[in-house]
Specification:
72% of the residues lie in helices and 0% in strands. It has 10 helices and no strands.
Length: 265
């Protein structure tokens, strides 16, 4: 009696692999640590509270258009997402290398799964803190332009994804790249106008800050989140889009060249 072959479409196989890897990543992230979910939420929340205490004087003096709490949150949450995707992808290959022995599982699946996981985690954190600010703080957390805000949020994710793949492949050749990446992301946090409004910075310094593409995305995200957010001249969507597409092209090109070496490591 002949055994009937079951055809599985490539898309169904891909989604099944991603779902299985997602559950595995979720269990690894939270299953092995006591209060793992709690500490994941505490990090950005404590960060927000500390900055609020330190920079509380800005609330009345320099932020009349936007509540300072929401100004901070709409900068911290997307940047943390970008940072955790970019750094998380560097360890995703080693975390899943045993699974690459199975032909349906590819290194790109590990990259995509880690990106989805970080996105889900930090989007939930963002939503929960927004709810707390609305419910207990009485803030208006409605989004002025939801479509634009979501598009910019996705672009931030794509930039982190692209940078993460490049850093992951580079660190597989030069392990010190992981240290360099963390060193670079620290000043980038302070240079992205997260803790201060960009319009208070002298014009001669703003021109250098605008070289940072993540700053453009965060400023535009805030402009779509708030109705009356003043954008500084020179902030535009074209520069970060071109930068992200260039990063994505380099990331996919490097992945195509190194995909077999990544699976074999």
């Amino acid at each position: 009696m002949k055994q009937k072959l079951i055809y599985i479409s490539p898309f169904k196989q891909f989604t099944s692999v991603i779902f299985a890897l997602f559950l595995r990543e979720l269990k690894t992230r939270f299953g092995g640590r006591r209060f793992g979910v709690f500490w994941t939420f505490v990090e950005p929340a404590v960060h927000l509270v500390i900055i609020l205490l330190v920079f509380s004087f800005l609330r009345a003096r320099m932020m009349p258009q936007v509540p300072f709490e929401l100004f901070l949150l709409t900068g911290i949450a997307p940047f943390f997402l970008f940072r955790h995707i970019a750094t998380g992808l560097m360890s995703s290959i080693n975390a899943n290398k045993a699974l690459f022995a199975y032909s349906p599982v590819k290194p790109i699946d590990a990259y995509i799964t880690r990106t989805i996981l970080e996105t889900v985690i930090y989007t939930i954190i963002f939503a929960v803190i927004l709810f707390v600010l609305w419910f207990w703080g009485g803030f208006d957390v409605s989004i002025a332009n939801p479509v634009g805000a979501i598009a910019l949020y996705l672009l931030i994710i794509l930039m982190g994804f692209s940078l993460g793949i490049i850093a992951s492949i580079a660190s597989s050749i030069f392990p010190s790249v992981k240290i360099i990446m963390n060193i670079i992301l620290l000043p980038l946090y302070f240079l992205s106008a997260i803790m201060f409004p960009l319009w208070i910075v002298p014009a001669q310094y703003v021109q250098y800050l605008k070289l940072n593409p993540i700053l453009h995305l965060l400023e535009l995200f805030k402009a779509n989140f708030f109705s009356y957010y003043p954008l500084v001249d020179g902030i535009n969507i074209f520069y970060p889009i071109c930068f992200t597409l260039a990063l994505l092209f380099i990331a996919l090109m490097l992945y195509r060249i190194k995909r077999l070496a990544l699976a074999a490591k």
